[in-house]
Task: structure prediction
Amino acid sequence: MQAGVLCKLWLALKSGFDQRTLFRMQDPTRKNPLRPLPNLIFASRWLQLPLYLGLIAAQGVYVFHFWVELVHLLEAVFGNQHALDILVNSIGYKSDAPVTSLNETVIMLVVLGLIDVVMISNLLIMVIVGGYETFVSRLNLEGHPDQPEWLDHVNASVLKVKLATAIIGISSIHLLKTFINAANYDEKVLIWQTIIHIAFLLSAMAIAMTDRLLPHHAAHDKNH
Result:
């Protein structure tokens, strides 16, 4: 053991290593402290923390909005005309005859609006949890019974694909709401919403294809 330490010491002195390198040779697990500038740059990731806290606040706003819409729907079911008027105005539904009771179209548009809120909330969760885990700090959820399944293999590339998929789902809900209530929209609005949805779909396919090709190139470079 002593002979091995003396040999490392002699090699270090012979090659001109500094004292810090010598300590690292004697203890490979020792971690060097970051210099001030790299430490400042690395710590700057915590500037994103207020952004994620803001998204949590936005999540609370969506939860409040969801319950307001749901309460109005339940009140309209029991014949509350004021709640029904609020729902009709919020979904942009128009009819030649006054709407005095819930009909299938109004219910469908309101429910699609609630689903839209839930899907946007899911998108926020993915951004908050996945973004914090990827760009700020580890959450250390390994072994936690409530750990999301998708968080096991999350990284920046996977997060982009999941976000693109979620955006397509939200766009689909908006497009469906528009077509159900197509009589109250201009033809140009229908065309442009369809074009935008197709653009989202093509963008998500391009992101997924890029994500699929990147590991292949990495493996190809390793082999060469």
Observations:
- Residues 187-223 form the longest helix (37 residues).
- Residues 44 and 180 are 47 Å apart (CA to CA).
- The chain is about 75% helix and 0% strand.
- Residues 50-223 form one domain.
